[in-house]
Amino acid sequence: LYNGDVEAADGIPAAVTALKDAMRAADGVLLVTPEYNNGVPGVFKNAVDWASRPASDIGSIFGGKPVAIMGASLGGFGTILSQNHWLPVIRTLGMQPWFEGRLLVSRASGLFDSDGNLTDDETRKRLLVGGLAIGAVFANGRGGDAGLGQAVCHDRRAAIGQRLVVEAAQLARRGGIADRFNIRDRPVPERPDTVA
Q1: Fewest C-beta in 10 Å: which of 27, 92, 102, 103?
Q2: Can you give the pTM of this predicted structure?
Q3: Angle at 191 between CA 71 and CA 45, to 5 degrees
Q4: What pLDDT score was predicted for residue 154?
């Protein structure tokens, strides 16, 4: 857990440095969040808190970075409250949030098979369309077919949903898809071709 005394005595841990490097190099950040007790999971928020240290790094890690939020929950609200709790955090960090829709999955336990594969076609379609939109925003101005690689996922269901969105974002980079789905282009800072 983040501790200012530990930071002062020992500096930034290697795992945090690796996370910051991945985020700095990314075109955008996809926060794939579960929802615990109607809010942001503490461990996930802690990772963002560590990544914002020292405060002088906030601009290079988060400033102007496109960010989208998605999540899956067992309950009926599909992480809407957790996603809302992220909004003041991403505002404080100076990120550029994607507000074109909500990527959330309610009652997720009934949508996955025993191997963790998403079996609900309607949910898959929503995540793919959302991923196309996010990918177009993240890739705006870059062109080409570069891969979207690195991701940090909190649990298995989140990883599956994130994988669908990344696949859709890769499709968006191939051109023409954003126009088919009527996705607006937005200027984004120049970044290498990864998603954290």
Answers
A1: 92
A2: 0.71
A3: 35
A4: 47
